[in-house]
């Protein structure tokens, strides 16, 4: 008999006391932001060797923003909307004890729309993704994953009175990942990926990661290093208002190193990770004049920081976690801060399971950050943005 499982989740974020333009300059109009997210997943295990599943995520955001021309100031009729649908379907087949393969299809549909007085604008983009992965595991100490991935994008936009026609792009990738476990406590993985982009040609990236568990102290050491490639999106290239057809792709190099520690019979845990990321040809929006701007390669960027956490498990059903992230992100040319990246972020997460009900409220403290010429601040300009979200999930499987 088959086994069926499902999960459903809903979360909501509301920010009411938010001022896009600087409060201290007399701009006292509140610019609320609201975001709703839903998720649904269905899985069906036909037999021990074959299972299928579907998933869907929906996000909706509604927000107000202020004018940036001729000066940064309150604007009572600037509003924006954002819709995002993400769907996926997978087939997973276990051929034998050492060979399995998985096919995944996914689609992303994004719509943006805004109004500024008598001017309106919109953008719609759609992405289709096909992925096939062959998993070969001849022994407990070695695992190889070989795969192929195709991503096709299309998008169109409108900024009154300009209508930008549909544009298309695609990328084809092959990847090989080798995973070694010479010891139960030691793990190392190396992946190499070759990508052919319809506009930006061939690129090769790699990633190397490893972890080691010191069983005597129950300490996990971990580290990774890798490179990245990101082609400009169709929105960044062809948006009617801010697109730039002359963009070059971003390339990056990154590494991180850290540890996780469990004590008191695994009831208390804490961890710390340091990371660095250097980006070449960073893509970001920049002003080009009064009420005009476009995406551009702003040069090199350097990002580094720490991620830390401490958690306590009261019992098998109740868990509390505190997180703190510090981020330093700057342009290499003039050492100015990168946009939309807070220096500090603090989070408090609670997780409780009551029968078949899972409850997970979260609260975050987010430090101030800048967005072009507008400094994103709350209240008098010195207080952080505080976000409270609530999430609950239920799942049921008569066989599991």
Measured between the Cα atoms of the first and last residue, the distance is 12 Å
Structural class: mainly beta
Unreliable stretches (pLDDT < 50, length at least 5) are: 373-400
Strand percentage, roughly?
A: over 45%
What's the helical proportion of residues?
under 10%
Number of helices: 1
List keywords for this structure.
single chain; 400 residues; mainly beta; 19-stranded antiparallel β-sheet; two-stranded antiparallel sheet; 1 helix; 1% helix; 71% strand
Q: Could you outline the blueprint of secondary structure elements for this entry?
A:
Layout (H helix, E strand, L loop, with lengths): L2 E13 L17 E15 L2 E15 L13 E19 L2 E18 L2 E21 L2 E18 L2 E22 L2 E12 L3 E14 L4 E12 L3 H5 L11 E14 L4 E13 L2 E7 L2 E6 L3 E15 L2 E14 L12 E11 L2 E3 L2 E5 L2 E3 L2 E3 L8 E12 L4
Antiparallel strand pairs: 1-2, 1-23, 2-3, 3-4, 4-5, 5-6, 6-7, 7-8, 8-9, 9-10, 10-11, 11-12, 12-13, 13-16, 14-15, 16-17, 17-18, 18-19, 18-20, 19-23, 20-23, 21-22
């Amino acid at each position: 008999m088959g086994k069926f499982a499902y999960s459903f989740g809903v979360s909501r974020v509301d920010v009411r006391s938010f001022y896009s333009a600087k409060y201290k300059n007399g701009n006292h109009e509140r610019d609320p932001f609201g975001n709703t997210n839903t998720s649904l997943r269905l899985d069906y295990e036909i037999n021990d060797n074959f299972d299928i599943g579907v998933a869907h995520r929906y996000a909706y955001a509604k927000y107000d923003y202020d004018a940036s021309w001729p000066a940064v100031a309150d604007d009572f009729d600037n509003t924006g909307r954002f819709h995002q649908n993400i769907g996926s379907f997978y087939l997973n087949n276990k051929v034998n004890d050492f060979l399995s393969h998985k096919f995944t299809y996914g689609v992303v549909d994004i719509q943006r729309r805004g109004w500024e007085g008598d001017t309106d604008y919109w953008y719609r983009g759609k992405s289709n993704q096909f992925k096939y992965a062959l998993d070969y595991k001849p022994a407990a100490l070695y695992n190889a994953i070989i795969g192929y991935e195709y991503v096709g994008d299309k998008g169109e936009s409108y900024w009154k009175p300009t209508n930008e026609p549909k544009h298309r792009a695609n990328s084809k990738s092959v990847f090989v990942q080798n995973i070694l476990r010479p010891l139960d406590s030691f793990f190392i993985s190396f992946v190499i990926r070759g990508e052919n982009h319809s506009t930006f040609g061939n690129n090769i990236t790699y990633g190397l990661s490893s972890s080691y568990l010191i069983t005597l102290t129950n300490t996990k050491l971990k580290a990774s290093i890798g490179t990245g490639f990101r082609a400009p999106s169709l929105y960044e290239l062809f948006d009617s208002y801010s697109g730039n057809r002359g963009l070059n792709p971003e390339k990056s190099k990154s590494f991180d190193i850290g540890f996780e520690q469990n004590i008191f019979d695994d009831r208390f845990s804490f961890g710390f990770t340091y990371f660095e990321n250097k980006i070449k040809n960073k893509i970001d929006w920049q002003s080009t004049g009064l009420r005009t701007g476009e995406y551009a390669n702003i040069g090199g960027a350097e990002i580094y920081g720490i991620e830390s956490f401490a958690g306590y498990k009261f019992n098998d059903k109740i868990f509390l976690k505190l997180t703190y992230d510090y981020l330093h992100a700057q342009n290499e040319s003039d050492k100015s801060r990168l946009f939309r990246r807070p220096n500090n972020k603090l989070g408090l997460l609670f997780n409780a399971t009551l029968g078949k009900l899972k409850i997970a409220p979260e609260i975050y403290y987010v430090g101030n950050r800048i967005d072009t010429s507008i400094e994103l601040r709350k209240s008098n300009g010195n207080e952080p943005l505080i976000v409270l979200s609530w999430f609950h999930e239920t799942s049921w499987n008569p066989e599991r």
